[in-house]
Every structure is written in structure tokens, then in C-alpha cells.
């Protein structure tokens, strides 16, 4: 797709999101061609759709589709993905092989669903190595989101699951399938996070440009201007990182897109909430919704800090600094 | 095979960046014995500069650093990206930029663009060959962040300018052969509209250079005093009273294209840090890489914009903030990981870390302070109303 087509697609999608009730949105997006786009151009699909999910605070489990597709499986409304527990960059579910049966303890985060999924895809640690397992699901499933951002639909899962040993999604070296899945997830999350941060910045700019204190607009005070400029710096960097990762789709570029989105959100949460004054602590103002969403997204598929530690360890192990984003 | 003739390098340039890169990396590896003398330069600045000039001459004679400069200026043609690639591969292999950071990529493009053709054709090849060094006379005691208030007076004397006044923070002026200077040619108080840029010879009578020892202990900074210094008008860069455009172009290159060189160097330095400091926290190493990568993405965009002949506008302000953030973070991390060695060590390596730590503190001051960059972003990117 060229830039023009992308924009047209994005605008059409935004209208669909605006005009469709939440309960019918999944179906509407599929009619719009979400799964086809994901199938044909997965990175581009994330770059078009996930900013809208962030901006409009949409609570659909499309990340499940992205991760399922990256695992080489067929995504769809009845297939769910089990993410590691918040902040962990590696699977927190475990598996043991017992007489041709994989016995698993699933511990992690899932998107709530009205009805339990038919198929589940889960990264697990099998003999200490990450492996992906896909199989039929017969247990119960969280029906509603929990905690600080229940609206977003994220819930914790703690369940036992058994499938035949053949359910391991094989692909080359141990862990490479999981790494590819996580990278696709990082890229989609980065786009979504950047849109959440952009909304926080927009709200803070609107507030400071319209409110007066000491007979002057808040945005006229240099300290206010500099705090907003700082948020803007990390937005610019995070946007370039997401675009670079969409272009290259390599694992490290996707990880860096996520950590730079995390840096942007952390600065946006801090500075924008401070500049919104008391309004940033109310439910009257929309800021709190983005703040809640940001906190959860920053911790999905690895917190900013844990991903940086992984990156640092890999630099030490390789004894060289990776060369990305070449001229 | 060792490529070492400009004709061969020129023929590679038409093939594309990847081919030139491969050939250059091979050349570096094949010539490791010859190049080794240029690693870890230290000691007195006269000998360091002599070595850097030697390296530059070698790279000129072999053709590599003539890439990306037009033929009429002593170059071999090709894109700006080739220049970025050459400096990147040199840094990745652990060699210093052969020319002063503040010259080749900062002042070179401005002289190439704004000097009369004959003057550019005379000066640029000398710079590329390493025959001479240049300095940048912008800041004054009363004009730092507020550069447009500069006062060094250039009186119109028909065919020449007569200069009187002062400059400060002029890097390496003691070693420089030329100076790219901003002077007041309009009325006092004419702000950015009354400034003219020119290039002058440092051996012109009436220039006094006084060293101002830097925090790192070297002779980088100088104060310049001008007492009836006569500069021919043929040395004017751009329009009379149009010096602000020259200054902004210089700053765009400093904040963008030169930042690309800087990130390549920082990436190499992070590699050495990880190697030398086993106690370095993994998350800190990862965060340092993240910041350097951020600068890489931003400066790559600026480089590409300049390469297309377009103005990067306000965008290099982002690059400049990332550059100082990354550089300070990297050297803070180094001191935290090796405090004994860096703060008290007496070996040359320790002295380098110490000097680079101290120099990194200035990265949020020179080329426009971090506060000025934030002002630019607030005004021109966010468009925040002031009143």
C-alpha cells in the first residue's frame, strides 16, 4: 500500500470505529478487511490499525490476532493468546511432557471474552526454553477486564491445560517462534502506545493553551513549555522507531520500538498529568483513561526496564553493538 | 584486494552505498597495520592533530573521504549518505573521525553552499585533504544562546570589512587556519537581520588568540580579539546581512549530519564500555543503546533530508536533544560502572574516559543549549501560544 492508500484505509477505519457499537465492532473490522490485511501485510496492518485502537481506546483483542498470525496460525474471533504475566518479557506459563501429553500451568494475561475461545495459543517454558503451544480450549475464560483499566479487558489467567504433545508449534531453533511472535506484538503495541501518548500530549496542550493563571495562559510559562517539549521529543523518537521497525520487522528494531514507546509514555504520564493540575486526577477529564491504558500496555510483553536488560545482556553476550537502521 | 585509488573508489560510488561500504570495510581490514597508529590518540594536541591530518591525507589520497563531495570541490561525487557511511565505518572499527568534529560536516557544507564558487573550490579541497583546520566564530561574551545579539562589528570599507570585537568558545582556534565568522553589519540592535557571515584567514594581522583551558584540561576553547582586522569582501558567505541563514544552515548540519558521526562514535564507545566494565548493569547498557539508536534514527532522517537538498527546518532540534541525552547517559553509565578507574586511574584509557565524561557535559550547551532546543520545539513544533 502506498501512503495515500494507507491514509484512505485508516480514515475509513476511523469512521467505522466511531460509528459502530462496541459489541459489533469486531465483526465490522473483519468486514472492513482486518484479517486480510493482517494476512497480506502484517507489519503494515499493525501500523494502520493499532494507532486507531490507541487513540480511540478500543478494547478489542486484535493483539491476539497479530500474535496468532505471527505464530504461523490462523487468527480469528475464537482464537485467544495467553501473554506472559505483566512486565515479564519471557513466558510465565510452564509445561511438562508426560506420556505424550503436554501438561501446562498457564499463568499470564489474556483479553477477556464474552464466550470462552475455541482455540488457545500460549507461549510456555518447556525444559527451560520458550515454546509455543496451540490447542483446543475447554475451560472457563475471564468474561471481563480487571483492575486499574477494566475497560480495556485485560485479565489475569491462572489455569491448568493439557494438550497432545504434537500441539507444540515447531519452527527451527528453540525459542525462535516465540521471539518472532513477541516481535510482532512489540511492533503492534508500540503503535498503540504511541497513539495513547499522543492523546495525552494533545489533552495537555489543549488544557495549558486554554487555561489562565496569574493573568497568563499556562502555555506561556517556560517551565510548562519545556515539559511539553520533552514529551514531544520522546514522541518524535518513538514514532521514528515504530516506523523503522515496521520497515525492517527485525526482532531488535521491534523491541526498541516498544522501549522507546515506553519512554514516551512514561514522560507523557508524568508531565501531562502534572500540567493538567487537578483535572488530571478526576474522572471528568479523559486523561485518566489514557493513563490507565498506558500503564498496562507498558507492561505487556515485557516492561521497558526488563526489555532494556535483555538488550544489554545480548550486547554483552555478543561482545558487539548491533547495527540497525542503516543508511 | 586492497582498493586504494580514487579512480577505483569513484567507480564503486556509481554502484551504490552497499558496495562502497563493503569495499571500504575490506580496505580498513586490509590496512589494519597501517591504520593502527591512529587508534587511541593521546598526548599533546600538536602531535594528535598531526596524526589526524595524516589519517585525513591517507583517506583523501585513497579517495574514501572525497566521496559525497562534488567534483568541483575536490570530491568524487555521490550522495551525502556515502559521507555518513565512511564516518560510521571508521568509528565502528575504532578509529577517530580524521577531521575535527566541528569542521568537516559542520562548516564544510556551509562554505560549499554559501561561498562564491571560486572561494569554495579553493578552500574545500584543502579542508578535505587535511591541509588546514577551520574554526567557528559564532559565540561572544554577550551572545551565547541569544546569538542574534552578537556585536562583533564589521565596518564596510568598500572592498573589505574591518572587524573589531570579540569571540569566545572558539574551538581549536589556536590550531586553525581559517575561521567562519558571524559579524554585525547592520545597525546595533538589528538582531538576526543585521548579521553577515564571512570566512577569514587566521594569520590576518590584528587577531589575538587566547586559550581558555577547558574543564577537560585541553586547549580546545579560545577567546578571539579582533583589532582592525581587514577581510576582503570576496570572503563574504551568502548575502550581506543574510548571515543568519548561513548560521542556521551550519547549526542544522551540526545538530543533524554531524550528530550521525557522533552516534556512530557513541555506539563504538558503548561496545568498549561493555567490554571494559563487567559490572555494568544490563538494563543501563540496554538503555544507553536505546538512546544512541534514537539519535541514529533522528540524525539519519536529517541526513536524508539534507541529501535531497531540502531544509530540515526545526527537526534537528530533536537530534540535538537526543545527542546530549545519549552522550551524557553513556558517560554517566561509564563512571557508575568504573568509578575507581575513571576517577582516579592514571592509565591513558582512564584519562580518555575522564576527558570524554567531562566533555559530554558540554553536549547540552554547545551548538544551541537544550533549553533553546526546547523553546524551538514548543514554539514551532507544538505551536504553544505564549499569551
TrEMBL record, chain A:
UniProt KW keywords: FAD, Flavoprotein, Oxidoreductase
Record-annotated Acyl-CoA dehydrogenase/oxidase C-terminal domain positions: 188-310
InterPro entries to which the protein is assigned, alphabetical: AcylCo_DH-like_C, AcylCo_DH/oxidase_C
One Pfam family linked to the record: Acyl-CoA_dh_1
Matching Gene3D superfamilies: Butyryl-CoA Dehydrogenase, subunit A, domain 3
UniProt keyword Oxidoreductase present: yes
Keyword Oxidoreductase assigned: yes
UniProt-recorded name of the protein: Acyl-CoA dehydrogenase/oxidase C-terminal domain-containing protein
Annotated source species: Arthrobacter hankyongi
Automatic annotation (TrEMBL), chain B:
Limits of the Acyl-CoA dehydrogenase/oxidase N-terminal domain: 54-131
Kinase among keywords: no
SUPFAM superfamilies, sorted: Acyl-CoA dehydrogenase C-terminal domain-like, Acyl-CoA dehydrogenase NM domain-like
Residue ranges occupied by any Acyl-CoA oxidase/dehydrogenase middle domain in the UniProt entry: 135-229
Protein's name according to its UniProt entry: Acyl-CoA dehydrogenase family protein
Family: Belongs to the acyl-CoA dehydrogenase family.
Domain (Acyl-CoA dehydrogenase/oxidase C-terminal): residue spans on this chain: 292-382
Co-factor requirement: FAD
Alphabetical UniProt keywords: FAD, Flavoprotein, Oxidoreductase
Amino acid at each position: 500500500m502506498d501512503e495515500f492508500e494507507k491514509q484512505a484505509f485508516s480514515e475509513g477505519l476511523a469512521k467505522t470505529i466511531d460509528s459502530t457499537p462496541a459489541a459489533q465492532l469486531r465483526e465490522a473490522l473483519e468486514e472492513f478487511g482486518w484479517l486480510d490485511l493482517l494476512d497480506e501485510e502484517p507489519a503494515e496492518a499493525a501500523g494502520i490499525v493499532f494507532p486507531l485502537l490507541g487513540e480511540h481506546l478500543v478494547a478489542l483483542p486484535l493483539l491476539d490476532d497479530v500474535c496468532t498470525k505471527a505464530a504461523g496460525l490462523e487468527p480469528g474471533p475464537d482464537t485467544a493468546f495467553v501473554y506472559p504475566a505483566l512486565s515479564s518479557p519471557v513466558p510465565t506459563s510452564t509445561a511438562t511432557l508426560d506420556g505424550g501429553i503436554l501438561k501446562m500451568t498457564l499463568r499470564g494475561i489474556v483479553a477477556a471474552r464474552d464466550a470462552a475461545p475455541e482455540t488457545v495459543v500460549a507461549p510456555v517454558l518447556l525444559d527451560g526454553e520458550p515454546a509455543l503451544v496451540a490447542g483446543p480450549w475447554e475451560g472457563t475464560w475471564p468474561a471481563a477486564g480487571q483492575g486499574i483499566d477494566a475497560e480495556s479487558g485485560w485479565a489475569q489467567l491462572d489455569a491448568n491445560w493439557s494438550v497432545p504433545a504434537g500441539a507444540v508449534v515447531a519452527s527451527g531453533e528453540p525459542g525462535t517462534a516465540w521471539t518472532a511472535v513477541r516481535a510482532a506484538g512489540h511492533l503492534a503495541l508500540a503503535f498503540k502506545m504511541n497513539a495513547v501518548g499522543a492523546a495525552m500530549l494533545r489533552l495537555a496542550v489543549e488544557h495549558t493553551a486554554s487555561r489562565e493563571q496569574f493573568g497568563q495562559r499556562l502555555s506561556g510559562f517556560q517551565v510548562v513549555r519545556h515539559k511539553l517539549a520533552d514529551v514531544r521529543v520522546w514522541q518524535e523518537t518513538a514514532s521514528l522507531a515504530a516506523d523503522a521497525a515496521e520497515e525492517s520487522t527485525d526482532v531488535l528494531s521491534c523491541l526498541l520500538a516498544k522501549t522507546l514507546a515506553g519512554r514516551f509514555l512514561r514522560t507523557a504520564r508524568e508531565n501531562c498529568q502534572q500540567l493538567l493540575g487537578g483535572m488530571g486526577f478526576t474522572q471528568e477529564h479523559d486523561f485518566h483513561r489514557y493513563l490507565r491504558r498506558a500503564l498496562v500496555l507498558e507492561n505487556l510483553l515485557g516492561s521497558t526496564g526488563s526489555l532494556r536488560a535483555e538488550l544489554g545482556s545480548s550486547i554483552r553476550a555478543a561482545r558487539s553493538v548491533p547495527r540497525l537502521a542503516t543508511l | 584486494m586492497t582498493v586504494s585509488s580514487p579512480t577505483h573508489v569513484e567507480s564503486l560510488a556509481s554502484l551504490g552505498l552497499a558496495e562502497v561500504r563493503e569495499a571500504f570495510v575490506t580496505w580498513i581490514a586490509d590496512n589494519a597495520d597501517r591504520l593502527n597508529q591512529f587508534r587511541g590518540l593521546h598526548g599533546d594536541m600538536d602531535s594528535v592533530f598531526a596524526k589526524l591530518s595524516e589519517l585525513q591525507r591517507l583517506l583523501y589520497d585513497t579517495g574514501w573521504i572525497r566521496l559525497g563531495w562534488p567534483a568541483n570541490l575536490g570530491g568524487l561525487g555521490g550522495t551525502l549518505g556515502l559521507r555518513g557511511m565512511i564516518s560510521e565505518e571508521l568509528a565502528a572499527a575504532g578509529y577517530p573521525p580524521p577531521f575535527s568534529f566541528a569542521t568537516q560536516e559542520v562548516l564544510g557544507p556551509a562554505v560549499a553552499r554559501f561561498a562564491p564558487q571560486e572561494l569554495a573550490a579553493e578552500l574545500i579541497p584543502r579542508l578535505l585533504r587535511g591541509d588546514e583546520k577551520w574554526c567557528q566564530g559564532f559565540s561572544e561574551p554577550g551572545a551565547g544562546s541569544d546569538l542574534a545579539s552578537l556585536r562583533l562589528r564589521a565596518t564596510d570599507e568598500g572592498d573589505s570589512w574591518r572587524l573589531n570585537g570579540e569571540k569566545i568558545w572558539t574551538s581549536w582556534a589556536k590550531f586553525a587556519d581559517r575561521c567562519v565568522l558571524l559579524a554585525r553589519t547592520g545597525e546595533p540592535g538589528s538582531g538576526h537581520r543585521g548579521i553577515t557571515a564571512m570566512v577569514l584567514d587566521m594569520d590576518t594581522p590584528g587577531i589575538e588568540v587566547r586559550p581558555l583551558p577547558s574543564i577537560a584540561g585541553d586547549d580546545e576553547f579560545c577567546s578571539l580579539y579582533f583589532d582592525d582586522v581587514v577581510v576582503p569582501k570576496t570572503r563574504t558567505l551568502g548575502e550581506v546581512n543574510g548571515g543568519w541563514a548561513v548560521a542556521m544552515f551550519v547549526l542544522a548540519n551540526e545538530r543533524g549530519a554531524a550528530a550521525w558521526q557522533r552516534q556512530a562514535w557513541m555506539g563504538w564507545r558503548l561496545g568498549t564500555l561493555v567490554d571494559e566494565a563487567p559490572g555494568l548493569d544490563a538494563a543501563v547498557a540496554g538503555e544507553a543503546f536505546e538512546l544512541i539508536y534514537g539519535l541514529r534514527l533522528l540524525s539519519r532522517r536529517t541526513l536524508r533530508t539534507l541529501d535531497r537538498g531540502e531544509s530540515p527546518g526545526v527537526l534537528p532540534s530533536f537530534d540535538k536533544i537526543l545527542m546530549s541525552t545519549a552522550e551524557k547517559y553513556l558517560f554517566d553509565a561509564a563512571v557508575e560502572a568504573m568509578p575507581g578507574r575513571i576517577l582516579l586511574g592514571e592509565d591513558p584509557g582512564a584519562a580518555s574516559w575522564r576527558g570524554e565524561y567531562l566533555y559530554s557535559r558540554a553536549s547540552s550547551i554547545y551548538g544551541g543549549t537544550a533549553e533553546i532546543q526546547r523553546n524551538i520545539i514548543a514554539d514551532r513544533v507544538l505551536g504553544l501560544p505564549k499569551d
